[in-house]
Design goal:
By secondary structure, this protein is α+β, with helices and mostly antiparallel strands. Helix content is 37%, strand content 19%. It contains 5 helices and 4 strands, in the order αααβαββαβ. This is Lrp/AsnC family transcriptional regulator.
């Protein structure tokens, strides 16, 4: 979808201020309210805006550990892979899952209350998921950038 300047401005503002009212958004991007509302609706219907949400502070919620877990599956058995993905989807502490190229099949972002809790998640759950042969865990020491806005194409 080709975006014009006003649409890019709307997206730029909404990425940082998702709760902004249409009145405030229109003023900030230099449009009147009705055209601004129509453009936002069109961006939603076109799938460019896929949803709205709140960023939660994981540490304030008691999740002190963030681990990135590289997963290698036994073999590319389609049934086991579907079962693995269903188990990933069902595990609340896995907050992201990416299929990877290279020597590992998946990268999981896992949050845990403590190292002991992470150890339980890894050894008693993730390692027992369908088809998992091996996992390798790396731990975040410091969040440098999170929830970054997507770069928008130039006009």
């Amino acid at each position: 979808m080709k975006l014009d300047r006003s649409e890019r401005d709307i997206l730029r503002v909404l990425q940082g201020k998702g709760r902004i009212s249409n009145v405030e958004l229109a003023a900030e991007v230099g449009l009147s309210e009705s055209p601004c509302f129509r453009r936002v609706r069109a961006l939603e219907e076109g799938g460019i805006i896929s949803g709205y949400g709140a960023y939660l502070d994981q540490r304030a919620l008691g999740f002190q550990v963030t681990a990135f877990v590289l997963v290698t599956l036994d073999k590319q058995d389609e049934r086991k892979q579907r079962e693995f993905l269903a188990q990933v989807e069902a595990e609340d502490h896995i907050v992201e899952c990416h299929a990877m190229s290279g020597s590992h099949d998946y990268l999981l972002k896992v949050v845990a209350r403590s190292m002991e809790h992470f150890s339980e998640l890894a050894m008693q759950r993730i390692l027992k998921f369908a088809g998992v042969r091996n996992i390798e865990s790396n731990f975040s020491l410091l969040v440098v950038k999170e929830h970054g806005a997507l770069p928008l194409p130039r006009g």
